[in-house]
Amino acid sequence: MTIREHLKTARLRLEAAGVPDAAVDAAWLLGHVLHLKALEVQVRGDKSLDAQQQAAFEALVLRRAAREPLQYILGETDFMGLRFLVRSPVLIPRNDTELLCSKALERLRPGDRVLDLCTGSGAIAISLAILAPGITVDASDISPDALQLAGKNAAMHGANVNFREGDLFDPWQGQRYDMICCNPPYIPSGELAGLQAEVRREPMLALDGGDDGLDFYRRLI
Alpha-carbon torsion 21, 27, 29, 32, what sign? Predict the structure, then answer.
């Protein structure tokens, strides 16, 4: 079978499993196997896969058909033009959150101190540390898994971020900041069961915002 035929077969299987954007995901998965970008895979549609490549692609398609998030399968995602490692059970950075970073960058000045709460993978804290030179960034999360991943992301980018484990402001008593950033859990508890299958594979700790979704906003305020 050619690459084009493999992609068609994978697309049909993913569509049957209810996966959104099945064709796009199939190209990303095969690109991961071939160490190519998704668009480059399309260009090579007439070429064939060897047995090892076929087996690797089949395994990834099975995982995606089970509604495992694409980012977890690939092990990485893009945020603010930077590449971040992602893995379960840490929340996947969303492109919508780039708006928070963009607004923060408009206001930050050299010498400012920034605190990022609920840092997760560290995407916000690391992006600000890289894109706003001269600032100091502290970040924390209640999840040890998240902080371990955030540390790896910071090391990968050479970003100077001070991470601590703890609940919201607890690790930072007595500190003062020019800016506090946070993307807290905000989904009402009653809506969690109805979320997209992929989102339900992410940590509920990072999603459940209480009865009306505003529990953490009240605590922050």
Answer: negative
